[in-house]
Amino acid sequence: MQVLNSISGRKSMGGKVIRRGAEAIIFLASFEGRQAVVKERVKKGYRIPRLDESLRKARTRMEAGILIKAIRAGISVPKVISSSDFSIVMERIEGPLVREIINEKNAESLGRQAGTEISRLHSFGLIHGDLTASNMIVSNGIRLIDFGLAKASSRVEDKASDIFVLYETMRASKPSIFPLFWKGFAGAYASGKDAVLRQLEKVERRRRYKPQD
Predict the structure, then answer these.
(1) How far apart are alpha carbons 92 and 110 in whole angstroms?
(2) CB 3.0–4.6 Å: which of 10, 35, 84, 145 could bond 1 by disulfide?
(3) Catalytic site residue 130?
């Protein structure tokens, strides 16, 4: 898409990089007179070029598709403005990350908001794939971001594994306030709650007792 190519070209001329991951670079850019966020999947020199291109196209297409489905379902995620083979242009969401502001006073409330939003995501058969406090922005409630590992699935195992990432990262990074956060989350999560939380316990036991290499 021509407009996306022009945006990518402007990245090196002042587009502020706001996140640099293993698979993609996320930067600010001007789009149709407003500020947007662009996620561009970068080439990987260690992969066969044809395979690299195919993977980047497939993952970009999957991510854009999941975001569009989530938006249509009324889930709080960035709106997709445009996309191409390797890039997605999204609305810019202003606000702090959950990991930046969570504390003893707001942990249970943030947990409820996260549980509500993730429950809605799962109820529509969508799996985030990287649920962490760094992928949640507080802006009129919690909005989920970075769907680079997302997929479509209604399997209880996939829902439980999705939640497990959040469970483990929050417990490790915020141990003193994790019980409050989890109380709010578990109370608000409602997408096949009993079955998913039972499966979460099984996932936790498997990971805990997994043999070390």
Answers:
(1) 21
(2) 84
(3) yes
pLDDT per residue as tens digits for the range 123-173? 999 999 999 999 999 999 999 999 999 999 999 999 999 999 999 999 999
Residue 7: pLDDT band with limits 50, 70, 90? very low
What are 203's two structure tokens?
Answer: 């996932």
The per-residue b/e assignment along 177-190, b for 16 or more CB within 10 angstroms, e otherwise, is bbebbbebbbebbe
Specify the amino acid at residue 94: E
Q: Please state the three-class secondary structure of 39-84 as a single string.
A: EEECCCCCCCHHHHHHHHHHHHHHHHHHHHHHHHCCCCCCCEEEEC
**H-type helices in the chain, by residue range?**
2-11, 49-72, 98-101, 107-123, 156-173, 178-188, 193-208
Of 3.30.200.20, 3.40.50.920, 3.40.50.2300, 3.40.720.10, the CATH number of 7-91 is 3.30.200.20
Question: Which residue in 130, 146, 158, 162 is the catalytic one?
Answer: 130
* Over residues 78-107, mean pLDDT: 95
- The closest of 148, 170, 171, 174 to 19, measured between CA atoms, is 148
* Report field, pTM of the whole predicted structure over 0.70: yes
Angle at 96 between CA 75 and CA 146, to 5 degrees: 45
Given 1.10.510.10, 3.30.70.600, 3.60.21.70, 1.10.10.10, which CATH number is that of 98-208? 1.10.510.10
